[in-house]
Every structure is written in C-alpha cells, then in structure tokens.
Design a protein that fits this description.
D-Maltodextrin-Binding Protein, domain 2; seven-stranded mixed β-sheet; about 35% helix; 2 domains
C-alpha cells in the first residue's frame, strides 16, 4: 500500500458507540480536500494464503454416484459446484447477482499485486469459473493520471485499487459504477460494519461508489532508548504540544547527530494538517472557496509546526518521510510522525531496531485530530462486466480476505488497519504487534473532509511551498499560511 502517508471536521459518523467499541477492542470530478499521503510507503505485504483461505478452496466436482451405489429410499448426494467449498459452504456471497454464462476477463489495476492477491484470485476463479481476474500493474504515482486518460478514452480497466482521496473526483465525473444496488444483495458487505471515516470517502452525493479495503491513521513513533538516555520515561510519551516540544528539545544534540524529531519541506502541508486541526483550525470554509488555514488558529499551529525544524536534522529537511525512515531506525531521530505503514517497514527492513521503539497517538492541543489514509476498490462505468467485477470486489472485501491483506502473517507482517469494525475489535489484529493499538485508538480522532473543491490539489501546493520556505527560515509560520491562503484563493479567480 502506498500512502500517501488525508472543512474538515471530526467525522459526524464517528458516533460515541463506535468510539466505545473501538477503545474496548484496543484494551482487548472534483476531489475533496482530503489529501494523498505523500509517503511512498511499502506495498501491502504479500503472504502465502493462510490455512483459512486454503480451507475455502472448492472441492473438485464429484462423479455422479451410480444407481447401484444408492440404497433403496436414499437420495444420491448432490455434487458440489464451483460456488461451494469442500465443506459445502456456499461461497457465492451475492447469489442474486448472476455469474456470467460465458467466460469473461475482469481487469484489475493496482500497485499492490503479489502472492496474496494472486492466491485470492485463484480461489475466486474456482468459485466463479467463468470469471478470470487479470491484474494490471500501475505504479501508485501514475495511477490517478493514467485512469483520467483511460476514462477520457473510454477504455479504463473494469476495476481498480485506488487512493481513497480520488473516489469523489471520479464519481463526480460519472466514471464509476454506483454500488448501492449491488451491496444491498451482498451477504458479506455490511456497511454498518465499516469505520465511518473510511466509508465517507467511498461515497458521493449519498451513494456508494467504492468499497474500502485498507487504511491507517497517523501516529507517533518514538525511540525508547532516546527517552531513557534523555532521562524521560519511555512509558510516558508526550500527550500535549508543550510536552512534545519539551521532549524534542531534551533529546536534540546536534554535536552527536541526535535530533528530537524530523520535518520534511516537500511534505510540509500534509504533516501540518494534524496540528492545524488540533488547534481548532480548518482548511476551507463550507463554501469550498474561502481558504481559512490562515485563521488565528492556523497561524498558531503554523508557528508551532515551523518551530520544530530546530529539532530536526538539517540534512533531511529536503527529503521525505520514506527516506527519513533510516534516520529513525538508526536512532539519529527520536520521534517520528507517520502512518501505521511505518511499523511494517521497521519490522521488515530494520529488525535490529525491534524493541527500541514504541508508538502512541499524536499529542493534542484544543482537540485530538489526525489524518487517515486508505485505499478503495472501484468499478468503472465503461466496464463490460460490472456484475462480475462486483463479485471480485465483494470477495476480497469478505472479512477473512480483508484481514489477510491487512494483517499478513507473523512471518510477513502487514501493518495496515482493516476498515471494518469487527476486524478492529478482533484481538487477533494485535497479537504480536501491540503497537497497532494506538493507531486503532486514533481512529476516534480522524478528520475527514466533506468539502468539495476541484482545484484543492493546486491550492495546497502554495501551502506546501510556503511552509517549506518557513522551515528554511525564509519566512515565519504566520507569513507562510497568510501568503499561501492569498495565493490559493487567487487561482480560483482565474
């Protein structure tokens, strides 16, 4: 999964009941202003199919029993079909949606193809023998533009794995299939089981146009050895802005190449948002045209955020949160703000650092707030086989298959969060990786935009550039948000 390590307001749908459920579990076209995670994070770890997946493979068709083998008064056993497992369990999750009568090929574009996806496609084909999945590999950074080109030429893939932030844009262009009717016939896609924050980004004008498949929230990674060496309690990570800066200052020692935290000018805007929201600020007004990240709250957040550059290694200032992982893994950086993907990277790429780091929710100010990122599955309007395509999306969205893709195995861990409440409540999600609890708890603080602004991506570039200049000391944080807001509003007048 590549994340892009997204008015915002706290998601209305994160009801108190959901929050309680999640916390208990922890103990046990017009794009919206959601933003694509700038991090080129590792792909979803691909693993061999688990025993549960293998057990669901359908048995070969049995030969019809001869009359002589059937006793008088006994009924001959019905042979199993391609839609049943060896145990007779019906694996067609939407029997009211017919399978194609002739063989068809469903194309699936993504950047995450691997053994786990292929294993699921093989099993799917055994259940639905007239549907073959053809994978199309498209790099994450090329996916959006390639799909735009294909849609314009009326030749997109049947289905695709896309960043959640682009669903509204393509749905507004009438490029995606409305999934409401399909989902109403599904036995495994229960919309009430999805985390509302992720489900919101799959909707457009009160209809569903995508199925969330994976996700993550942004949290704090910190080196426990750094804490101990600075006389800080590693069991007490910073909980407020004041503590965060205090800890960063205590652990910064440039003479010994030790820094309290790390910031990146090329990704300045994305990592500014949690501080902005925590201060009580927003990015755009309800009308989608008035930029308000330069409000008094935004100015205060920018001053705090830009000030963190003094505790960050200067050599990494023009880098990014993917390349910067090395500085944290080596112990040169003590606190690192990143998505859950970072845990998987540390476990697989830097095993020597295991036991030397921990995670926590982001520190808070006026309120808790964090970004969330996710990937969704969509069907394009130009698909010649929308029903077959839906059956594929439905199959990988079944809880056991979604769990496989998000959790991986102990041998090949994947550290993403399944966007279904039942899976987040499952203690198996945290077995052997207790650090994931903080990211799950962080869901209650997720901020998702419901303001639509077609040109937000262009507007954000001014914020990113000016905050980056502030990191280099060219301007201060207040000037950065004021000037960028003026520049962003100016392009809407062109």
């Amino acid at each position: 999964m590549k994340y892009r390590d997204r008015k915002p307001s706290l998601v209305r749908a994160l009801l108190p009941l959901f929050i309680v459920m999640l916390l208990l579990a922890a103990c046990t076209g017009a794009p919206t202003e959601q933003d694509t995670d700038p991090t080129t994070a590792p792909e979803v770890e691909e693993v061999e199919p688990t025993e549960a997946v293998e057990a669901e493979e359908p048995a070969p068709e049995e030969e019809e029993p001869a009359e002589a083998e059937t006793g008088e008064g006994e009924e001959a056993e019905e042979p199993t079909t391609g839609e049943e497992t060896a145990g007779g369990e019906d694996m067609d999750f939407s029997p009211d949606i017919p399978d194609p009568e002739e063989p068809v090929v469903v194309t699936f574009a993504s950047w995450v193809y691997g053994e786990a996806w292929q294993a699921l496609a093989d099993q799917f084909h055994e259940i639905h023998p007239n549907i073959t999945i053809e994978f199309q590999d498209v790099p994450f950074e090329e996916m959006h533009d390639k799909l735009l080109t294909q849609v314009a030429a009326n030749n997109p893939p049947d289905t695709a794995y896309v960043d959640a932030s682009i669903v509204a844009e393509f749905a507004s262009r009438n490029a995606l299939v409305n999934l409401d009717d399909y989902v109403s016939k599904s036995q495994v896609v229960d919309l009430d089981d999805y985390v509302p924050a992720f489900l919101q980004s799959a909707q457009w004008e009160d209809s569903l146009y995508a199925l969330p498949i994976d996700g993550e929230s942004t949290g704090l990674f910190y080196r426990t050895d750094c804490f101990e060496e600075a006389g800080l309690d590693p069991n007490q990570p910073p909980e407020t802005w004041e503590e965060f800066e205090e800890y960063a200052a205590a652990m910064t020692d440039p003479a010994n190449n030790r820094y309290g935290t790390i910031v990146f000018a090329p990704e300045a805007a994305y990592y500014f948002y949690p501080w902005l929201w925590q201060a009580g600020g927003e990015t755009l007004a309800e009308n989608g045209t008035d930029v308000i990240w330069d409000s008094p709250e935004g100015q205060r957040a920018a001053e705090f955020y830009v000030n963190l550059a003094q505790y960050s290694p200067p050599d990494f200032l023009n880098s990014n949160s993917w390349d910067g992982r090395v500085a944290f893994a080596n112990g040169d950086v003590c606190m690192y703000v990143a998505g859950a993907w970072f845990a998987g990277t540390l476990l697989t790429e830097f095993p020597d650092a295991t036991g030397l780091w921990a995670t926590a929710p982001l520190p808070e100010d006026e309120r808790c707030a964090t970004t969330i990122a996710g990937d969704h599955l969509v069907i394009f309007q130009d698909s010649e086989h929308p029903e077959a395509a839906y059956k594929w999306l439905e199959f990988v969205s079944a809880p056991e298959n979604m769990a496989l893709l998000n959790q991986g195995t102990p041998e090949a861990p994947a550290t993403l969060l399944p966007p279904r409440i039942s899976l987040l409540e499952d203690p198996a999600l945290y077995e052997g990786r207790d650090f994931m609890r903080g990211f799950a708890e962080n869901m209650q603080c997720a901020v998702v935009s419901d303001v639509v602004q077609p040109r937000y991506f262009e507007m954000e570039q001014f914020l990113n550039e000016d905050l980056g200049r502030a990191f280099y000391g060219e301007i201060d944080g207040t000037t950065a948000v004021i000037e960028s807001a003026e520049e962003a509003e100016a392009i809407l007048e062109q």
